[in-house]
Amino acid sequence: MMLTRHWRWVLAVVAVIALGLVLEPVFRPGGRSRPGVDLPWQIHRRGDTVEIFGLTLGETTLAQAIDKLGQRHEVALFRALDGHLDLEAYFRAVSLGGLSARMVLNLDLPRDTLRDLLPDNAPGQPMPSGSRRFALPEVPPPVVARAPIRAVTYVPVVDFDPELVDRHFGQPGERLDGPEDIRHWLYPELGLAISWEGEQTVFHYVRPPMFSRLRARLLEATDVTADANAISDDATPEYS
Q1: 74 - beta bridge partners?
Q2: Which pLDDT score is estimated for 148?
Q3: Domain span holding position 181
Q4: pTM of structure
Q5: Which positions ≥6 away from 167 have C-beta within 8 Å?
């Protein structure tokens, strides 16, 4: 009788461990790296591109990013009011270098390929911006899995106040200030813009040659103006 109870207890423990191994990827954030590694200020310039979070813009593919950041992600196609298409992968919870965050990867594919990805006769989900969102299958088509990352948006759980940003990134090349506590610090040589809207901090990473487009988009989206104390446009590196 004692032997039977013993083995029942052993089997129960094994079952609990097995269940934990199955559920662990579901409940923990994706994307793991050692503390102090893959932090948002650890940006490595590689010629005309940058490496951040172990991802090289223009080179690392979505499949490689999933392997780095974790399987919990959503891929969707967005169609703007003017018909422009943008492909994004959204990671709801990643943990890199000891910091938790949400991440969006913008993926680079030819326009015709993006059109082919649009579901037939699907109305899409309306978004606040007026665009429509079209969800893609959980397992993306091979052409999507091979798509290189064009840009990264990183939204940390913890707040990065300007003093903390200054400590890790230094003074920006330009400051843009807007209404209602909206502001942006720009680092063109790193392809980086750091934005605040209230207490929310957002990091935008692009290849440095594409930075002028990011700057223009931030100006248009938030109606900000250049700070009088910022470096003038003539002194800011020009990128096509």
Answers
A1: 90
A2: 98
A3: 160-227+234-240
A4: 0.79
A5: none
| 40 burial type by CB count under 10 A (0-12 exposed, 13-18 middle, 19+ buried) | buried
Residue pLDDT, tens place only, 63-75: 999 999 987 899 9
What is the arrangement of strands in the sheet containing 49-52, beginning at the earlier edge strand?
44-46, 49-52, 55-56
DSSP state letters, 195-216: EEETTEEEEEEE-GGGHHHHHH
Q: How far is CA 200 from CA 79, 159, 160, 195, in A?
A: 26, 6, 8, 8
For residue 131, give the 3-state DSSP assignment.
Answer: coil
Decide if 4 is inside a domain. Answer: no
Domain count, the chain: 2
Instruction: Give bridge partners of residue 50 from the DSSP assignment.
Output: 45
- Dihedral, CA of residue 59, residue 64, residue 69 and residue 70, to nearest 10: 160
Residue 20 forms part of a structural domain: no
One domain for residues 84 and 183: no
| Per-residue pLDDT at 220 exceeds 50 | yes
Assign 3-class secondary structure to 69-104: HCCCCEEEEEECCCCCEEEEEEEEEEEECCEEEEEE
Question: What's the pLDDT tens digit per position in 22-64?
Answer: 343 333 445 566 678 899 999 999 999 999 999 999 999 999 9
